[in-house]
Specification:
7-stranded mixed beta sheet, 6 helices, 9 strands, two-stranded antiparallel ribbon
Length: about 170
């Protein structure tokens, strides 16, 4: 984005830090009323020792600012969204981003898509508890009205952040 058209939208601290470090890219169009920051999906085969991608998966979750700030501060998902869900893989990321683009609506005002690198066993557990087809992907429920899978994120896995934009690893 050109410096002449710099937006005055205030970024959250972690967003500003990641943007300044070059880990996020501002792809906002000229005249935009909000900022669109993006990063490539995490490449586990390049970045981590085993498990390989066959033993793990990428899940995506659209989240509002308060949820993201809680996650960044506490290293765990807040247990406040009764219908929260995660979606797997590239199609899941595309679906999650629809909430940011206004193509899907929800009352929690999502502003961020968080990527989770998780053991395949966690995905299998969430899928067995509750899943449903969405626009080109499968969502798995986390909230207490959508399968209750938050328990597995909160009690059976530690979430930590890689040196990447909001890539959380569950171990």
């Amino acid at each position: 984005m050109s410096k002449a058209k710099k937006l005055s939208v205030k970024l959250l601290r972690h967003e500003a830090d990641l943007l300044a470090a070059g880990k996020l890219v501002d792809v906002s169009h000229g005249g935009a009323s909000s900022r669109w920051l993006t990063a490539a999906s995490y490449d586990a085969d390049k970045e981590l020792e085993p498990p390989s991608q066959h033993d793990a998966a990428l899940l995506y979750r659209p989240m509002g600012d308060l949820e993201v700030q809680y996650l960044v501060s506490h290293g765990e998902l807040p247990d406040t969204q009764p219908y929260q869900a995660v979606m797997e893989g590239p199609n899941g990321r595309t679906y999650a981003e629809k909430y940011l683009r206004g193509h899907k609506q929800v009352n929690t005002s999502p502003t961020t898509v968080v990527e989770f690198y998780v053991p395949r066993a966690l995905v299998d557990t969430l899928f067995a508890i509750q899943h449903k087809p969405e626009d080109g992907c499968i969502s798995m429920g986390l909230g207490n009205k959508a399968g209750g899978g938050t328990f597995f994120f909160l009690s059976q896995h530690t979430i930590f952040f890689l040196d990447e934009p909001l890539v959380c690893v569950c171990v």
